[in-house]
Amino acid sequence: MINRSLVVGAVCAWLASSNAFAESGVAYVTSQDAGVSVVDLASLAVTGTIDVKGEGPRGLGVTEDGKFLIVAVRENGSVSVIDTATKQVVKQIPVGKNPEFVRVKGQYAYVSYEPSSKGGPPPKPGAAPAKEEEDDDDDKEPARIGIIDLKQGKKVREIVGGPETEGVEFSKDGKQLIITNEADNTITVHNIKTGKLVKKVETHSYGDRPRGIKVSPDGKTYVATLEYGNKFLVMDQKFKVIKAVDTAATPYGIAYDKSGNFLYVASNKDKLLQVFDAHSFAKVKDIPTGNRCWHFSFTPDEKNILLACGKSDALFVIDAEKQEVKQQVEIKNMPWGVVTFPKAMGSLDSAK
């Protein structure tokens, strides 16, 4: 005979835990040598992993309603569309060779990919390219942003960027797409409807290999990290360079907090998350972190920052108010990027 009180108690406990999960949200973390880890933000514990049906997941984004996760899969040149309720891949959509960054806006996913990519690590600062790369320079094919209609389930058009496109950002009004092109040291601005090049910003005089790109919450300022310049650039609404700000070694991920008062920069080589005043650009604090920390996200309640540290096999949890590491969550196999739902500010995504 079933004990009714025990059943009712179990149901209530399940509902309570489900409500806590819903209120606190969830984080999704890609691991380059595995799949996607799911982190319950109420407990800061990994609750499961998702098989993306291919090797080399990196960039990821979540739809506005949280129902689908879109993950770039390097091995098969596609994005995996994952039902977040079942944690199953429901469709793989071909994009092109070496897909990396993913941004989701409305019914569209914008995915950077590199037709001419040969793979392997980038050259060290000041080093000459490999011989085969030198031979191919004249006809090296530029990278592209593949635009996927998620309702149709297919790539519908492309925007041509520069060689080795990295970061992807939208203007505040949604009319322009801004991308960083690390191989030719440019930041390019495109009309999002037509793909037409609107402006090109040369970064070499400030530093090489532009990587992260973010617009301020008020839409008046753009910032971009220069990995081989140990700086970030500050640009106005018309993409005029206002100043270059020194950072620790090899900066990559960059993001504002939701208030727009602070700016955060992940320094890979110096193993820091740096905090800057977003108005004066004066450095506020250096937060020691782990090995190869590239991308990060606030939690939806803005109380913590989650930093994926690939060679530490960990997600560092940073108290956003105290600006110090409070714990680490073990995530093996080279964690690369992290986004949350509900959406939050971060180097790969932005809250509304």
Describe the structure.
This protein has 352 residues and is mainly beta. The protein has helices at residues 4-24, 131-135; strands at 26-31, 36-40, 45-50, 57-62, 68-73, 78-83, 88-94, 102-105, 108-113, 144-149, 154-160, 165-170, 176-181, 186-191, 197-202, 208-215, 222-228, 231-235, 241-246, 251-256, 262-267, 272-277, 283-288, 293-298, 304-309, 314-319, 324-330, 335-341. The strands form 7 sheets. It has a 4-stranded antiparallel beta sheet with strand order 3-2-1-28. Strands 4-5-6-7 form a 4-stranded antiparallel beta sheet, with no helix packed on it. A 4-stranded antiparallel beta sheet has the order 8-9-10-11, with no helix packed on it. Mean pLDDT is 90; it is low at 1-22 and 128-139.
User: Largest beta sheet: what is the strand line-up?
Assistant: 3-2-1-28
The structural class is mainly beta
Low-confidence stretches: 1-22, 128-139
Strand portion: over 45%
> Would you tell me the overall average pLDDT?
90
The largest pleated sheet is described as: 4 strands, antiparallel
